[in-house]
Input
Amino acid sequence: MLYFEEMKTQPDFIPSGGITSPGGFLAGAVSAGIKYAPPRLDLGVLFCESPARAAAAFTTNKVRAAPVLLNQRRLENGTARAVVMNSGYANSCTGAAGMADAEAMTALTAKHLGLKPEDVLVASTGVIGVRLPMERIGAAIPRVKPSREGGHDLARAIMTTDTVPKEAAVRGDGFTVGGMAKGSGMIHPDLATLLAFLTTDAAVEIGFLKKALKKAVAISFNMVSVDGDNSTNDMALLMASGRAGGKEITAGSRRAAAFQAALNMVCVHLACEIARDGEGATKLITVNVTGAANPADARRAARAIVGSALVKAAVHGGDPNWGRVVAAAGRSGAALDTARLELHIGGVCLVRDGAPHPYAKDAVVAHLNGNEVAIALNLNIGQAAATAWGCDLSPEYVSINSDYTT
Output
């Protein structure tokens, strides 16, 4: 399968696993009253007990938040020890003062943990254009007590409009990969998603770590669309403690495929959870595009379909308006031949050879009215495939985003 390369065995999910499942990682969170009233958690720290190799993917939005700019600079050496993170305000479009606030958060965290400020990264999410309440943050950071059990609290602390925390961990070939993510709205990422944090206790060479993250992000977070918008704060960070020991994993080494498979598995799971928890969502939409001329075209078509407001609205209403699906694929930029298109919804064929195919409408409507909707489009011009995830578009989405700051 796409996620597991050519492995004979798949990684195993760890029940109740998360960001601190891999060895060497601690986490904790507190209520700082940044935007939300206590006791809601809104500030936390991810801490590696020893220097970790680190790689990240960031938003391609030209408007980039102070945390993104600071992290890009600090990750040039490929190492990190900790991340301090908050929800409520994004610290984006806050000018030089916002950068000073981001640096101050890392300095306060470094002092608390006995680290150097340059070893600490920062992540913020929430409303754009509002300064952080640094007095509250400064008072709260010393109250964060990282522990092996604190990962679940941290996953809750980064939630904004999310309704559930998003966590996962899997066991690989002598190592563990864990992760957590937040995201519910402003989701149509390029290079990453709103906030995703990944950890592993594998010893991984930095060059391969970067390549593995880029590949995992391409088939997971970059294939999610809730509303067609990408954030100013998007980031996916991967840290490797090396605590599991063993021979260093490099590209082409014996365990390279196993590591990639485990990382893919965690990222895909988190991506699906983000789509499922989209703002106002009532249904998870999975779009499989096959028969594309190349992988890039397969991804273009899948993302266009899952990101289409018209497709999302039709799914919400249980309307088998298949023309919206093929039209979205047609404008995606992917090469296609209309006369070869084949479309299935819920396993039922609606289009064959580019023309309507007789189908049981009641069966398709019943599928569309379920909690999970599967759309499969075969372009029939090549061998490439891709999967994208999204959600329906409901009136609740408009309600959430019409009073988000008021």
Residues 12-276 form a domain with the L-amino peptidase D-ALA esterase/amidase fold (CATH 3.60.70.12). Residues 141 and 342 are 55 Å apart (CA to CA). The chain has a mean pLDDT of 95.
